[in-house]
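re: that chain from earlier
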Amino acid sequence: MQQIDDLDEFRNWLAGRPVSSPAAIQDLKLTELSSLITQHHYAGSLFLGCEIDNLTAGYITSTGGTVIPDDRSFQFAIHRSRLYTADELFAGFNADDPNGYLNTVDYAIYREYLHEGKRNTRMSVSLARSLHDHSITEALDQLITGRKVVAVMGGHGMERGDDFYLRIARIARQLTRDGFTIATGGGPGAMEAAHLGAWFSTRDDEQMQQAIEILRVRPDGAKPGKEYADADWLHRAMKVREAFPLSEEDQRLSVSVGIPTWFYGHEPPAPFPTHIAKYFANSIREDGLLEIAHHGVIFSPGSAGTTQEIFQDAAQNHYGSVSVISPMILFGVEHWTNVRPVWPLLREVSQGHRYGEIVSLTDDEADVVDQIRTFDPAKYTVS
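^ sequence. v structure.
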């Protein structure tokens, strides 16, 4: 079904009526086009999150169309035609307020999410969240079409001063320069590091190091492994964004997508992706992130969540449940052999299977980048 999220495109579609096929019209302000709309019929068409007066909406439904309006009683839009930006989610942030994050749009949605209940909530709430997540998936699919997506996984507890934080940023920066699109779970720690690298893809080592020096300074008495809980965690990131802004051309060259969830809303989303696909349903977000990474997944040091993602990705590759079997690169020999001894089991279960050819363990940044560069998805397409 054709998707329309531009007024000119909508007018052109109407000009082809009644011959035109049904379409999904998304997130458009149509209140001034009522006289034009009521000249046509809409069997099979969907109007999702559009601004339409009641009489026109009634006319559309009477001719076979479906209208799903936005419910302004929620903190979030039920239907979106585009992904979030950090500016949108962090709207309301005040750098002079020590609790600046608590005044943002993102936190307001999370607060409502907790109030309504994560599960077993009212049907209207459940349906609204499902429609929201569906629209996010649609917008994400539009963004990544034609892009070479590489996922970077890793622990949310990784501190900005950790050596692996810098190493992940360097890998992500180089891959972005090479034309790949970085995708992560969109949270703090290793995920933020990957987006920082993409953000600095048009800048040099010295500038990225300057940014990390701003980011890494934690308050006295801060709890190890919980940097995202520091009161000034977002403040430091906003200083970096202000000191090293992206021009319009930088934004085109530095695209990355964070895919976080309000299910883990106590962790703020990473501030450095150019696009944010934030979900309510964590299961859709987890599986979808691995599914879109047709050019490989890099697993940097992490804990239970990253371990789960390794075997979730292994299952996708083992059964060929997505269109491409993609590389699995465990980055951090000591971590994945001794701290979290995943590597011996992964190597064992992948033996004798096609994906076993592209499963690896390394400490070498250049090796990680080279494996991604030289991978040919056409050779590992699932028939």
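DSSP finds 16 helices and eleven strands in the chain.
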